[in-house]
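#struct-help
A.M.: can someone run this one for me? Single chain, 212 residues.
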Amino acid sequence: MMTDQHIELNLKDNYIGYQGGSIVTKGVISNLNFKNSNLQPFNSPEEYANALSRGSKKGGVSAIIDEVPYLKIFLAKYSKDYSMIGLISPTTNGFGFAFPKGSPLVADISRAISKLREAGKLTMIEYTWFQSESMLTSSGDNSNNEKPLTTESFRGHFLISGVSSALALVMLYSFLIHKNSHVLKNYDYKDFFRSRLNFVKEYLSKKLFSRN
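D.P.: on it. Structure tokens below:
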């Protein structure tokens, strides 16, 4: 979710298009505090394409704000020239079903949609109507496309953290050894290993006698 503080758009010479008569889109634009003088309503994908092709300097617009389902319809026809900002994920977000209270269809429709989603049928339906996901975003300018973050994105950070931790441990052990060097010099390692060896012998002897 974005607030008006996150949006940096110089609207002095730029105009924004939106779907005329759409209460949802109009509400979103109002929350973004755009001036009405910079807004232009349109009623069809063809009008969107015409306005975007002309641009703000020639009486058109610099961008379109609309609901995702309508933008997908627009991009299915004009995907070569335009792209939608943000990640596209095939879901039922954007539209819903309205039923009277107590309608017996609610449970059946919900189950049917869940089955379609689990089986991947929603993706197939969307691709059939709106082409493939790659067609919905412009392939000509990848600099504006958002890329999802994965563990590979942080591989360098993990490597730096691991090396730093290892160096810190080496430095710590080196400091401890140097600080207690006089103790280590006077320590009788022969007695230590001899006592450990006797302990192992006694343990094995007890195990053997207990079996017999």
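A.M.: thanks! The chain has a mean pLDDT of 71.
D.P.: also worth noting: The longest strand covers residues 16-19.
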